[in-house]
Amino acid sequence: MRFIAVLRTAETHGFPPPELAEGIAALGAEAARRGVLIDTAGLLPLATATRVGVSGGELTVTDGPCGDPTPLGAYAVYEVATRDEVIYWTKRFMDLHRRTWPGWEGESEIRQVVGPES
Questions:
Q1: Is the pTM of this model over 0.90?
Q2: pLDDT tens by residue, 12-42
Q3: Of 13, 2, 5, 11, nearest in space to 76 by CA
Q4: How would residue 118 be classed by pLDDT, with cut points 50, 70 and 90?
Q5: Which CATH superfamily is domain 2-44+64-113 in?
Q6: Is 31 left (phi over 0), alpha (psi -120 to 50) or beta?
Q7: 104 in Cβ contact with 19 (< 8 Å)
Q8: How far, CA to CA in Å, does 23 sit from each of 46, 83, 92?
Q9: Mean pLDDT of 109-116
Q10: What CA–CA distance (Å, rounded) separates 103 from 110?
Q11: CA of 28: how far to CAs of 7, 51, 60, 79, 116, in Å?
Q12: Beta strands 106-113 and 72-79: pairing type?
């Protein structure tokens, strides 16, 4: 089963401390070696985003900031056998934040991916 975990956090935290970046790199390398991590990346701030939408039958294009209450900060795509496995990896990712970035707050949302290749 394929899942995506998206990180939601305020953009006021700034860049992560070096210990967190190193921990994330090590965790990503471990998950890749185990064959469960397909893709991962950080996302630039909302100020750089563009939204394309439909409202009232019209297409709209809006350049950021786009005004989400809690912006997306990163994502990871996993291929695992069970939902518990993706929860395991996501908990480890979030625990790195808790241990290495005092005062940081955020959450990861896990969603199963559906489609022909998932």
A1: no
A2: 777 789 999 999 999 999 999 999 999 999 8
A3: 5
A4: low
A5: Dimeric alpha+beta barrel (3.30.70.1060)
A6: alpha
A7: no
A8: 25, 23, 10
A9: 91
A10: 23
A11: 15, 29, 37, 13, 25
A12: unpaired
